[in-house]
Fold this protein.
Amino acid sequence: MSREIQPIFILPEGTQRTSGKNAQKINIEAAKLVADQVRTTLGPKGMDKMIVDTLGDVTITNDGVTILEEMNIEHPSAKMIVEIAKTQEDEVGDGTTTAVVLAGELLKNAQNLLDQNIHPTIIAKGYRLAAEKAIEILNSISEPVTLKDKDILRNIAVTAMTGKGAEASKEYLADMVAKAVVSVADQVDGKFSIDSEDIKIEKKVGGGVEDTELVEGIVLDKERVHSGMPKTVHNAKVALVDSALEVKNTEVDAKIQITDPSQMQAFLDQEEKMIKKLADKVIQSGATVLLCQKGIDDMAQHFLAKAGIYAARRVKKSDMEKLARATGASIVTNLDDLTSKELGKAGIVEERKVGDEQMTFVMQCKNPKSVTILVRGGTEHVVDEVKRALEDSVGDLAASIHVGKVVAGGGAPEVEVSKGLKKFANSMSGKEQLAVQAFATAMEIIPVTLAESAGLDPIDKMAELKAAHDKGMKWAGINVFTGKVMDSWRNKVIEPLKIKTQAVKSASEVANMILRIDDVIAGSGSGRGEGMPGGMPPGGMGGMPPM
């Protein structure tokens, strides 16, 4: 008598599982979809995306990381590609689209090798070797740059802004960014470093992009606390205080019983005395401007106004630190410690109306180590996009100076790397060489996309580019405006080396990680839609085979 063997379930009900080639295909497909979303934004002729979120807020941008963050992507592999963009943004501040497009192309080329029955670990090993070689090639072709190379710095800033919302005023804005970066640079052990936090980018709707200005100091979105205070203070002595000019409340509940009205008056007089004492400490230090991180009592405002001191309250901690770097003042936590030694200097401190708000400008600081760019523009969307473009170019300059190396753009370094990798692949034996060749071909996606965005024939342009590089023109790139091959360096298209090396590193690492996954087990989390994590429909991402 034959007995049926009962099936054994080790996973809870509702769990979905995809394994083997099917799992790889789905993961690669999801990653490619993400790369395709941002691909059209690459380069000076790249287009913008309009993203409307669930609340109806609109974002218009061609900044890769902004698009991917706003898109609210659910698929787990697709999320890994979004992580690449975030890393690139944190490390360099620009080149997010390049990194994502490169990762998508690496996976697409890996799919062709998987279809030829090449094992994923062999592809991963080949990609790892290729990435190391690509970084070596990029380092060998790069050119040195220092703070003294004002022209190169300006060109890096212009390149970063080309094709973004700030393009119309890019020359003017690039000068501003270069000046800001040079003024906040710190020298440590003979190496320069720039903290992009020291360049505050404040935005206010109104005027046009060309009304954007560089303030050698800090702009605060605060007004003076009392109308009796001066609107403008010249040769200001600035006190930065991190304690309240108010009567402290007791920590425990205290009850004061008053039996006689004169006691009430004495109590109020005592309170006034305490506040006057606090205000006097500021006045005696010789400060003419007080910027306070906490509150300032109405009575204290009156005393400070009488002494002709300009005061603002509830200034953010991050702004206080920037003010200290700009004016040279020390932040004082206890008013008893406030002396003339702790004060900083500013040429002018004034309250100005910007748009519909009063703001405090701390300007003309001598040798400021923290500055502000006040971005203006016709609408909220314009101002946001210009701010993003400025952040990209500040990040580019910071990365260039920190590493001290730059490369020309226009697709030139990618073609050079591709050429070097093909040579490297020929020197190898074993199946890894196929993966290295696939990596070399993937690098060409950047110039190909630049050509496509400009409406040129990518096959023709790649043939011309390769011919130019074979003749030894290492900086031959695509001029998207004329449609011809140009010397990118002479045409002032310059980018930091770190954009390229970071993009290659993160794209290859994530591609390898996705390639090594051969099993996707998706639990049906309680309260979520069954299927993929995050409440995805059982079919995975739209248009994908059910999992």
